[in-house]
Fold this protein.
Amino acid sequence: MPIRAVLVDMDGTIWKTPVDWAGLRRTLGLPPDGRPIVEHLRNVPSRERARGMKMLAEQEARGAAEGCLMPGADELVDFVSRNRLRSALVTNNSRASVDTVLAQHRLQFDVVLSRDEIAMKPAPEAFLVPLESLGCSPEEAVAIGDTHLDVWAAHAAGLAHAILVAPPQWTRQLLPRSARLTEVSDLDEARRVLAALLSATSKAPD
């Protein structure tokens, strides 16, 4: 089935943030188990949750204000547009952070969704909801991200493929073994893999 949609992660994928997320986890006393920080905070006492969410919001705001585009981000987004693919930016970050990043850079996506609008990755709904908005099936979509959360969401949602960009070493042990994925070193390589997937699927029988 031809590829018609691309779902792109933000932090660590197209956006280079100065935030040390592992350090924030340690400060908050959260284990490095691969679960999103927000998910942990939802299950702690209210006083700890309020403190943790305040610190998270501060760090997310700093990351959005002081970060920069990853090399190759503009070229990837342009490639998606030129090939008339439907696109979504899907992030576990806050809407405020997403709006800050997009206000700085003219990145064009058909759909933009944060954790404030949809379930967080690795939940399959994180990808199924934007795909419904795009009018595409999971079998017609590719996800591009940088951690196990992106791959698990893609795997659970039944996406055609996932492209994993320079993942942190510790996340590799958390990847689903049966996932359809290609690991790449940067966004330029991710663009080449996406081009190859487009070529291969366009030639395949329906």
Observations:
- The chain has a mean pLDDT of 95.
- The first helix runs from residue 21 to 28.
- Residues 21-66 form one domain.
- The beta strands are 5-8, 15-16, 68-69, 86-90, 111-113, 141-145, 161-165, 181-184.
